[in-house]
Amino acid sequence: TRYTIRYFQSDGKGLLKNDNGTVFKPNDRYPLTKDVFRLYYTSLSADRQTIDVYVEDSFGKVQQLTFSFNNEREEGKDKPASSRH
After folding, report:
1. Alpha carbons 64 and 21: distance in angstroms, whole number
2. pTM for the complete prediction?
3. Residue 17: which H helix or E strand, with range?
């Protein structure tokens, strides 16, 4: 079975990339070549952001995951606060 991944961003603006550095374009399909992988999202706006990630197998079965983010700001500052892990 082969798997592909794609995403759509309905709110906000940002970049989604995988663990080998490939930056995804919205609605383009990318092959998943590993069983375990990481996705990295970088915010490019101060607005609320929502992305839908779709993983599809070669039989057409789709699994959708939705992620929503709010950009936190430090009080009295105009730039977004740095994220803490």
Report:
1. 22
2. 0.77
3. strand 14-18
Residue partners of 46: CB distance under 8 A and separation at least 6: 71, 73, 80
CA dist 8 and 21 (Å) reads 18
Q: What is the pLDDT of residues 13-64, one digit of tens each?
A: 999 999 999 999 999 999 999 989 999 999 898 889 999 999 999 999 999 9
CA 69/CA 43 separation, integer angstroms: 9
CATH class of 3-69: mainly beta
The label of the residue with tokens 């959708």 reads 64
Kindly give, in sequence order, each residue whose CB lies less than 8 Å from that of residue 60, ignoring residues fewer than 6 positions away: none
Report d(CA 53, CA 36) in Å as an integer: 15
Q: What is the maximum span of the chain, computed from C-alpha positions, in angstroms?
A: 52
Q: Are 45 and 14 in contact (CB under 8 A)?
A: yes
